[in-house]
Design goal:
The protein has 11 helices and 15 strands. By secondary structure, the protein is of the alpha/beta class. It has a 9-stranded mixed β-sheet, with helices on both faces. Strands 12-15-13-14 form a 4-stranded parallel β-sheet, sandwiched between helices. The protein has a two-stranded parallel sheet with strand order 1-8. Helix 1 crosses helix 6 and helix 10 packs parallel to helix 11. It is globular. The protein starts with a strand and ends with a helix. The structure holds threonylcarbamoyladenylate (TXA) and magnesium ion.
C-alpha cells in the first residue's frame, strides 16, 4: 500500500470518510500534530490504529469530537455516548464547562469518566476516556463528514517523533495506510495538554502542552496537580503515556546542561565524539555552531528552533527540526536545554527530556 496525500477538498474529505466508515484508518491534520484517525466505536479500526503504530495496548487513545451544534458540551458528550455524566461530581462538571468553554476547540484533552459504550481498546481498559475537540478546519470538516468521534493518536511509530506535516506521516506510515489529508504544517507543533478531571473534583496535568498549568488554574481557580516524573518502566497504567523515553530520534540525542555559550571546555560529553555532530539551539544558529565547533573540535551541523528565541516558534519547529537532524550526516545529536519552563517552555522541556532519555 502507498498512501495518497490529498488536500482536504470536499471530495478528499468524502474519500477519507468512506475509508473510515469501512473501519479503515487515515492521516488527519490537527493544530497540534498529525493524528492517525479511526472510528472510536469500531474495534476493528482501533485494532488497526494500534497495529499500524506498533503501539502497546496499555497506552490509551484520544477521542476527537466535532464542535456541538446547538447543544451544551455536557449534552453533546452524553449524546455521543462518550462519557458517564453520573460519575462526574458537581465540581468536575463545573471544571468541564469552564475548560471546554475557554479552550475548545483547541489543544486541550480532558480525561473524563467513560461511557460503557466506549470500547475498552480505546481506553486501555481504564474507566476514563480522553477527549479533545481539535480546532484545525480539516479535522473539524472530517469529523463532521463522518458524524462520529474519531480516535487519533499521533501518526508516528510508537515512541518516535510526532509528525507535524503530511510528508512526515507519509515517511512514518505511508506504506501502511491508504490516505493522508494534507492540512499544512501543524500550527502548535506539540501534542495537546492532557488534564484529568479526578473523582475528588481536582485537576491533574498528565501531559504538558500549549495550554499551561497556570492558564488552567487561572480559569478554574483550582490548584493543578502535576505528574512531574516520567514513569520508568514499560507499562504505565497509573499515568499512561508518561513513559520516560518518547518522541525519540533514531540517533542518540544528548541534552546539554546549559546553552552552548555558557558551556566550559570538557563539559560537553564523556565519550568519544564522531566527526560530525548535530546541534539544536534556541537562538542564532551561526553563533551556537561556531561555539560548539570550538568546544568539540568537530564539524557541527546546527539548526535553530527560533533565531529570535521565541518559544512558540521553537515548539512549532521542534519535531520537524529533530527529524532533519536525525536524517543529517551527524553521528550524535545534542540539544540545548529549554531555559524557561514557564508556559509552553514546560512542554518543550518535557519533550526534550523524553527524546533524550
Ligand atoms: O495533540 C494531541 O493530543 C494529538 C493529536 C493527534 O490530537 N494526539 C496525541 O495522541 O498526542 P497520543 O496517542 O500520541 O497521546 C495520547 C495520550 C496517552 O499517551 C495518554 O498520555 C493520554 O493521552 N491518555 C489517553 N487516554 C487516557 C486516559 N484514559 N487516562 C489518562 N491519560 C490518557
Ligand atoms: Mg504520541
Amino acid at each position: 500500500m502507498t498512501a495518497e496525500i490529498l488536500k482536504p477538498t470536499q471530495s478528499a474529505l468524502e474519500k477519507a470518510a468512506g475509508i473510515l466508515r469501512q473501519s479503515g484508518v487515515v492521516g488527519m491534520p490537527t493544530e497540534t500534530v498529525y493524528g492517525l484517525a479511526g472510528f472510536a466505536f469500531s474495534e476493528e479500526a482501533l485494532t488497526k490504529i494500534f497495529k499500524t503504530k506498533a503501539r502497546p495496548a496499555f497506552d490509551p487513545l484520544i477521542v476527537h469530537i466535532a464542535p456541538p451544534e446547538n447543544s451544551d458540551i455536557l449534552d453533546w458528550l452524553s449524546r455521543l455516548e462518550l462519557i458517564d455524566g453520573e460519575k462526574l461530581p458537581p465540581q468536575s462538571r463545573r471544571h468541564l464547562l469552564t475548560l471546554a468553554g475557554h479552550f475548545w476547540p483547541g489543544p486541550l484533552t480532558l480525561v473524563l469518566p467513560k461511557n460503557k459504550k466506549v470500547p475498552d481498546l480505546a481506553t486501555s481498559g481504564l474507566p476514563t476516556v480522553a477527549i479533545r475537540m481539535p480546532s484545525h478546519p480539516a479535522a473539524q470538516a472530517l469529523l463532521k463528514c463522518c458524524g462520529q468521534p474519531l480516535a487519533a493518536p499521533s501518526a508516528n511509530r510508537f515512541g518516535k517523533i510526532s509528525p507535524t506535516t503530511a510528508q512526515h506521516v507519509f515517511d512514518e506510515l505511508g506504506d501502511q495506510i491508504p490516505l493522508i489529508l494534507d492540512g499544512d504544517s501543524s500550527e502548535i507543533g506539540l501534542e495537546s495538554t492532557v488534564v484529568a478531571l479526578t473523582a475528588d473534583g481536582g485537576l491533574t496535568l498528565l501531559r504538558p502542552g500549549r495550554i499551561s498549568a497556570a492558564e488552567l488554574k487561572e480559569k478554574t481557580g483550582c490548584d493543578i496537580r502535576v505528574i512531574a516524573k516520567a514513569a520508568g518502566g514499560s507499562t504505565a497504567q497509573s499515568a499512561p503515556g508518561m513513559l520516560a523515553s518518547h518522541y525519540a530520534p533514531n540517533k542518540k540525542l544528548m541534552l546539554l546542561k546549559a546553552p552552548v555559550c555558557d558551556l566550559k571546555e570538557g563539559a560537553v560529553y564523556d565519550g568519544a565524539l564522531p566527526e560530525t555532530l548535530g546541534l539544536l539551539t534556541f537562538g542564532p544558529a551561526d553563533k551556537a555552531r561556531k561555539r560548539f565547533e570550538e568546544l568539540t573540535g568537530k564539524e557541527v551541523f546546527c539548526e535553530s528552533l527560533s533565531e529570535s528565541g521565541c518559544l512558540d516558534e521553537a515548539a512549532k519547529n521542534l519535531f520537524s527540526t529533530l527529524r532533519r537532524l536525525d536524517q543529517s550526516k551527524a553521528g550524535l545529536l545534542f540539544t540545548e536545554p529549554c531555559l524557561s519552563e514557564e508556559g509552553i517552555g514546560h512542554a518543550i522541556a518535557d519533550r526534550l527530556r523524553r527524546a533524550s532519555f
